[in-house]
Write a structure and sequence with these properties.
heterodimer, A: 261 residues, alpha/beta, Rossmann fold, 9-stranded mixed beta sheet, two-stranded antiparallel ribbon, 7 helices, 29% helix, globular, B: 389 residues, alpha+beta, Butyryl-Coa Dehydrogenase, subunit A, domain 1, Butyryl-CoA Dehydrogenase, subunit A, domain 3, 4-stranded mixed beta sheet, 52% helix
């Protein structure tokens, strides 16, 4: 089984601060980690490999330093890794990013399953995984909490929804995005760390993957960021004091004034 | 401080630390209460590849052929012991049962036993102690009588760490009582061998996540091919094993103390009394400083001895004894002081401090009491003095 896991390198959420003037992330001195949801995706990919055989390829689009996340993916059980990195990708929104990743995945050859985390913790869009499936014209199952069965070219999975879960079946190749309930990621083994140290991680450019430059970067990104602002801090509520009967009367009056009653 | 770890050793440290923090810490108190061997943690340690850090590459471990891996073992045991000095014995007590095979095993024996220990499938144990033979190991009563191509073992071993859970045991038994110390022989005995059963499970003060049992041999037939070294070499096997394994006990003590110090500093920084954090009290900072000095000096001697062994210097009886004795006495002091820093909370079972104090105590007693260690050191001093003349 050829398994592809998409990873994003994100700032470690515990350390993130926002520059109050520019409203942008202050990335200096902040550790970069594998997006936590993608760790579950990777673990599920490695478990599928352990059950059915095959290879796990970790792929990430990002700046050169994202190689560190891919090396970590190898220590956690991926067999190989590819970094998709090019100035031409800079400024890509989720549409352009999913297009770029889909061209790179095509370049990998036959794929049976693509696994992503449900969303990245920096952008929180949950759009890139589904976008890849659409670009590759394959079915997708999002918010997967359990893979029940993989057999005869089909996959059956439990998909979380607000009330519970659906059991969904799809033809393969398929893209699934996973939630954290799906597994408990392993600790990197010494063997994995040794392999990660030695691994050669190629960098694939836009030209190499044969991506159409018009669909990349700012040109390929219909999303416009009009304004970034911090939501106003929540004001404290009003506190009523006195005897219970007086407070009840005050409360009713105030609610009437506000035309709630 | 730069401890000059190799890249591999740094990986061992990080891996063991991750297991300690993520897997051991949440369950340490629970296993202590249950007095049960932590098979799930053993599996984590195995999956991470830590079981083979001191075993040769050719047997599935990570030590290059012809080298020793005691420093690797020390680093792993120290990190695991920071969160539980009982659970770390999955690795440390197995090492005690494996080192005699590494040192004295034939190629066939190594091929047969080391790979499954390196992969973590098999846990190992070492057994010399008996009811009447603790420090006086020469008075063991378990016998091994020759019977054709086999030996028949009879007797009872006591307080055997990893008893019952281990698959491979190294047993010291008397093959010829008339020869005294030269009449003992080391045997590899597999769990399940007819005539080999387990007696009492011990209920201990500390290291309660480790499994401590009596081993009972009743006409237990062991092939002569399972002799380690030669007939009559049993005590030599034991002594050489201890020389190499004592840094592991020292590392256990070091880890227990270092974990206690870390928690004591964290606690002192957040505990408020008299309107300020208690770490602001100089008296308390002096106490923590003394604890830190003890931990660091112990680390220095433990690492130095482990590295000396890894360099090929196996005449390390004195230094090995110093490391074990110094680090374990230190661990008892530091854990006692750490309980003091925690005050009443330190004395309560819901915090891991009183447990560390209980766990530390055994390191002064087993693998040779600290009185025996001092005796070894003194004996070596006399020998060294004699050889100078």
């Amino acid at each position: 089984m050829n398994i592809v896991v998409c990873l994003k390198q994100v700032p470690d959420s515990g350390d993130v601060k926002i520059n109050p003037e520019t409203k942008t992330l202050m990335r200096e001195g902040v550790d970069a980690v594998i997006n936590p949801f993608d760790c579950y995706a990777l673990e599920e990919g490695v478990r599928l490999k352990e059950r059915f055989g095959g290879t796990v390829t970790a792929i990430s689009m990002g700046p050169p330093q994202a190689e560190k996340a891919l090396r970590e993916a190898i220590s956690l059980g991926a067999d190989k890794a590819v970094l998709v990195s090019d100035r031409a990708f800079a400024g890509s929104d989720t549409l352009a990013t999913s297009y770029a990743l889909s061209t790179a995945i095509k370049k990998l050859g036959d794929v049976d399953i693509i696994i992503t985390g449900k969303q990245a913790i920096d952008g929180d869009t949950a759009q890139v995984g589904p976008g890849i499936a659409v670009h590759l014209d394959m079915p997708q199952i999002t918010y997967v909490r359990k893979i029940e069965e993989v057999a005869d070219g089909k996959i059956r999975a439990e998909r979380m929804n607000e009330e519970g879960y659906d059991i969904v079946e799809a033809d393969m190749p398929v893209l699934i995005s996973v939630v954290k309930e799906i597994n408990e990621p392993r600790i990197a083994s010494l063997k994995g760390k040794m392999a990660a140290r030695k691994a050669e991680i190629p960098t694939w450019t836009a030209e190499f993957v044969g991506a159409d430059p018009k669909q990349l970067g700012l040109d390929g990104s219909p999303t416009m960021v009009v304004e970034v602002f911090a939501p106003p801090a929540r004001q404290g509520g009003k506190r009523l004091e006195g005897e219970p009967a007086d407070m009840a009367e005050q409360l009713v009056n105030e609610l009437k004034e506000l035309q709630i009653l | 401080m730069n401890h000059f770890l190799t890249e591999e050793q740094q990986m061992i440290k990080e891996t063991a630390n991750e297991i300690a923090v993520k897997k051991i810490k949440p369950v340490a108190i629970e296993y202590d209460e249950k007095n049960e061997f932590p098979w799930d943690i053993q599996k984590e340690i195995a999956d991470a590849g830590l079981c083979g850090v001191y075993i040769g590459e050719e047997y599935g471990g990570m030590v290059p052929k012809g080298e020793n891996g005691i420093m690797n073992l020390v680093i792993a045991v120290e990190e695991l012991s920071k969160e539980c000095g009982g659970i770390s014995l999955c690795l440390a007590a197995t090492a005690l049962g494996t080192i005699p095979i590494i040192l004295f095993g034939s190629e066939e024996q190594k091929q047969k036993y080391l790979p499954s220990i390196a992969s973590g499938e098999t846990v190992a144990a070492f057994a010399i102690t008996e009811a009447g033979a603790g420090s006086d190991a020469g008075s063991i009563q378990t016998t091994a009588t020759k019977d054709g191509d086999s030996y028949i073992l009879n007797g009872t071993k006591q307080w055997i760490t990893n008893g019952e859970v281990a698959g491979t045991y190294v047993i010291i038994a008397m093959t010829d009582k008339s020869r005294g110390a030269r009449g003992a022989t080391a045997f590899i005995v597999e769990k399940g061998t007819p005539g080999f059963t387990f007696g009492k499970k011990e209920d201990k003060m500390g290291i309660r996540a480790s499994s401590t049992y009596e081993l009972v041999f009743e006409d237990c037939k062991v092939p002569a091919a399972n002799i380690l070294g030669k007939v009559g070499m049993g005590f030599m096997v034991a002594m050489k094993t201890f020389d190499m394994s004592r840094p592991g006990v020292a590392a256990q003590a070091l880890g227990i103390a270092a974990g206690a110090l870390n928690d004591a500093v964290d606690y002192a920084r957040q505990r408020e009394q008299f309107g300020h954090h208690i770490i602001a009290n100089q008296g308390l900072r002096f106490l923590l400083a003394d604890m830190s000095m003890k931990v660091e000096t112990s680390r220095a001697i433990v690492y130095a001895v482990a590295r000396s062994i890894d360099s090929g210097d196996l005449k390390c009886a004195k230094e090995s004894a110093i490391a074990k004795c110094y680090a374990s006495d230190m661990a008892m002091e530091v854990t006692t002081d750490a309980v003091q820093v925690f005050g009443g909370y330190g004395y309560m079972k819901e915090y891991p401090m009183e447990k560390r104090m209980r766990d530390a105590k055994i390191t002064q007693i087993y693998e040779g009491t600290n009185q025996i260690q001092r005796d070894v050191i003194g004996h070596q001093l006399v020998k060294e003095a004699a050889s100078r003349k």
